[in-house]
Amino acid sequence: MHPPGLIFCSHPVCYDRLGIGKRFMQAYHTLERRFARISRLDGALGILGWDKETTMPPGAAAERGEQIATLSVIRHELLCDAGTDALLHEAEADPGALGPWQAANLREMRRAHLHATAVPADLVEAASRAATACEVAWRQARADSDFPALLPHLEQVLATQRAIGAAKGDALGLSPYDALLDQYDPGLRQSVIDPVFASLRDGLPALLAEVVAHQAGLTSLPMPGPFPVDAQRRLGERLMQAVGFDRSRGRLDVSTHPFCGGANADVRITTRYDEADFSGALMGVLHETGHALYEQNRPADWLSQPVGQARGMTLHESQSLLIEMQACRSDAFLRFLAPLLRCAFGDHPAFAVANLRAHYRRVRPGLIRVDADEVTYPAHVLVRYEIERSLFAGNLSLRDLPGAFNDGMRALLGIDVPDDRRGCLQDIHWPAGLWGYFPTYTLGAMTAAQLFRSACDALPDLEDGLSRGDFAPLVGWLAENVHRRGSATSTAELLADATGTPLNASIYQAHLRRRYLGDAAG
Amino acid sequence: MHPPGLIFCSHPVCYDRLGIGKRFMQAYHTLERRFARISRLDGALGILGWDKETTMPPGAAAERGEQIATLSVIRHELLCDAGTDALLHEAEADPGALGPWQAANLREMRRAHLHATAVPADLVEAASRAATACEVAWRQARADSDFPALLPHLEQVLATQRAIGAAKGDALGLSPYDALLDQYDPGLRQSVIDPVFASLRDGLPALLAEVVAHQAGLTSLPMPGPFPVDAQRRLGERLMQAVGFDRSRGRLDVSTHPFCGGANADVRITTRYDEADFSGALMGVLHETGHALYEQNRPADWLSQPVGQARGMTLHESQSLLIEMQACRSDAFLRFLAPLLRCAFGDHPAFAVANLRAHYRRVRPGLIRVDADEVTYPAHVLVRYEIERSLFAGNLSLRDLPGAFNDGMRALLGIDVPDDRRGCLQDIHWPAGLWGYFPTYTLGAMTAAQLFRSACDALPDLEDGLSRGDFAPLVGWLAENVHRRGSATSTAELLADATGTPLNASIYQAHLRRRYLGDAAG
Q1: pTM of the model
Q2: Residue of A63, A71, A246 best to disrupt the B interface, most CBs of B under 10 A
Q3: What digits encode the pLDDT tens for the residues A208-253?
Q4: B41 interaction partners in chain A (CB closer than 8 Å)
Q5: Of A486, B42, B119, B138, which one has the greatest count of Cβ atoms within 10 A?
Q6: Are strands B250-254 and A266-271 parallel, antiparallel or unpaired?
Q7: If you compute the radius of gyration of chain A from its CA atoms, what whole number of angstroms results?
Q8: How high is the ipTM of this complex?
Q9: Is the four-CA dihedral A374, A376, A380, A386 of positive or negative sign?
């Protein structure tokens, strides 16, 4: 990014064309300054949001809400105002005047502007109000396992999400559902998801049955506790450092719901500690560290521009799962981890590598998505994705949601849902208006497997390095092939460039077979 | 404050006059919403500033600077734009339509607008650039005790401060120096300061000589250490609570330079701990708690409006010094403190009340202002104020500053300044462009004494309460007579209302005589 005061950048292409492209370039550079200002508001919002979850005294909640709303409205006004549209038109008139990153940046500016302006203000407000009311109703309905109490609120949310999908679809030339998907993962389309999810779904029940049979009779020693919070924190920091988190540009703190937030040069991850079980915080820190690496390694020259942002939720989730699931549950990493656990919590046979392997790889169909293991997690997402599509398209009535949910769980995981609290009421996404979000979890897991496979193929010593806690080759490969590409390409293009093939369910399935069935051919 | 969406407020006066005053009221309420937005930007800036000093990783400094600059520019634009001026004119056209708080609020809005718009943008920039360069030069010049190296930079700062004073003076109808004073303490004028400082100055050398003679031969046991940080923190929190700090709307944290910051419902104070000496952190926490009480007790209905702000630096400093110096170095409070020190740090004869009294009341002329005791501190300020006036008026050349400073120190404190590092180079204020700021320190100390005297007169049990750690009567009196008045009146009016008399040096002198010479007649 160029300093705000600079009118002309130093890219050779700009100087070459200064005579003929000057007006377009001026418009482009004015846009860069405007989007840098938006990025600084985003950074301020990131710090205020972090503070709200980690530090803020309780009595400040209402005022913090007003501060966040004020900055968000100012941000929205900057992005949407007529001046931005006029500048975009002017800059777009001579795209040849721009270098490739500038052209991609201009495309991302237009994308952000289209998404922000597509929805009329009264619909934004109606959707926000419906989601807020529905979230409140959902907390009570979940506690009471009372789906009928949620139904009228959820109908309002679905109606406003359909209207948003239609409005954004018109602006972007997409189907309404694709327009929602595009909010979370630019370029993601139902036509991309359906075949890979179908392929995943085909093999899932059989694979699950095989793994459960394979693990029958497998026992493991329980982890000895308690695990003092300080020792857990020190271990987490030691592992963050090994993975490559830059402490000079980020922090680890505590919050009720772990997240990765903050600002460009200030990436803040959180965890929560349980003295009875270190595993949640440990794997949580590694997961958030994966997110943080993506943020810390974004292209340095473009940090405050749209093209310098992470590409979307699928790739972001792929980076957290690549670190947590692919790298840090590998045999190699568990060999590195075992002595660190003994050092942190005392010598105990439960910390033997074989026992850690059994502990971290237990597969068991369960009711709750967020507690699911690597093999059963995709089933939870498939059930939700299929229902969400049907609800959105009007092929399924909301009143039939519980039945459809329970049927799906039985078909894919072979378990009966005893009540809606542990069934279709367990997640906040639909009440909160996050329609089109669920698929990114499993697309992220698949992408992680595919990227890790390619990294291992490219770097034969990679897994050996992990056994010594050396993540540098892996993270260097990720930085080059994912992080430093920002939003310069689509997710699909980035994945094809990095792995030589489009998103492919069989690579993920092979990973599961290899890890859970010892199937080397996988 | 009214919610941003509300056009008409519920004050009876508004409804009464709705027919005739409607347009004025609409303009007024539009202004309220605009200033509420400014207040939320101020709150965001307060949290970002707090985070910068307490929490931020070092690598984020440059980006944080950009975030703060961006919010500051947006704030400045909101305050200065032509729409604000037009609305002010419209609302001012029928001042009778407003209730008294609304009228005062409109006056404060105009004041903020005048201060912000008086200085042309290029002068704001030149002053900021001069101060930034001079601060850098000052750090080196102080380290090297090299005044000539600072001189050219300081000349630039003085020139821009003169130009700002002239521009603001034109806009406000004030002399240039009064315009600078008015930035830090609205309504403060040189004509107010000069007689009280003259009166203070007259008695000071003699009083100091008397106190030094009185304390000759006085010995005290040194405080036993070390004092673990955790115990110091718990003691500080215990005292904050006793004084009346509301933890649900504020925090105590650690920073290199202690301050009171944050936002309306989120007042954040900081301290720094020294394991060898608990006194600095302890009295620092009490000092910042005094500032925080002012912030926490501002008028609840007007928190986000100009009239709801604290009145200025003199009153703010008076509140911190009233708690730290007047209340918490009183005999009564030391009786409350002694057992708490034993409880925190173990039983020791040094924690006897008489020894604490000797420890906290040692008077000794010294070179450094921030280390000065209550009796000698005013001398440091008087020296600076007299020099500042002369420099600003052109009666003293900057190159003669070191000599004038050393002469002043000899005249008022009877000590020789061995080098400029410990002389005129010790403070950041002049290099940083804070001209007109120094007098508020001593005006604050005098105001604190005057307010405390009146509170004691009004509440005969007040000092008895302090000996039990009961601050409620004192803080209730302060809330009613100072905090909850916000900026509805001038500092002078507030002080006269609360104490029945204008600012009066003899009350402060009587306090010093009573405390340091045991002179009951005062």
Answers
A1: 0.92
A2: A63
A3: 999 999 999 888 899 998 999 999 999 999 999 999 999 999 999 9
A4: 67, 70-71
A5: A486
A6: unpaired
A7: 24
A8: 0.91
A9: positive
